[in-house]
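Need tokens for this chain, all 157 residues.
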Amino acid sequence: MILLKPLVALGSTFFCKNPNSMYQLDKQIGYKLRLAQQRHVEIFSARLPEITPMQFSIMVRLRDEPNVSQNQLGRLVQMDAATTKGVVDRLIERGWLRSRPSETDKRRRNISLTARGHEFLEYAIVAAADITKKTLQPLNNAEQNQLLNLLDRLKSD
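Here are the structure tokens for all 157 residues:
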């Protein structure tokens, strides 16, 4: 006797002998998101080869929230502590960030943009706007807004 297993696909349940045979990689959200991310990173790297998207995120957050601890900075950009430290260290080496002891807690290091970092970020933000435009270019304005709203709904709190 063959047992039929329920398979839920896009809100409807149907039964099949082998659910694995129904799985199509090209229809999976994770796969599609990775391909879209890959395309975006290619556009980003071509337009801003001096910096990675993660480094750019760190710098933008520091523009918005100057002089924060490395731990807080990691939370602001949704990166784990080890990744944040590596990114921050590379940006310090480039002269775009500085690290100083906190005035209130000597165990803590506060991270901020340097004058060079601010100068580079002004240029990079103009380029980033172009990168976003190129990434979203295949979509019309309504689709762009819909995509961004749907992605906001998918991200974790």
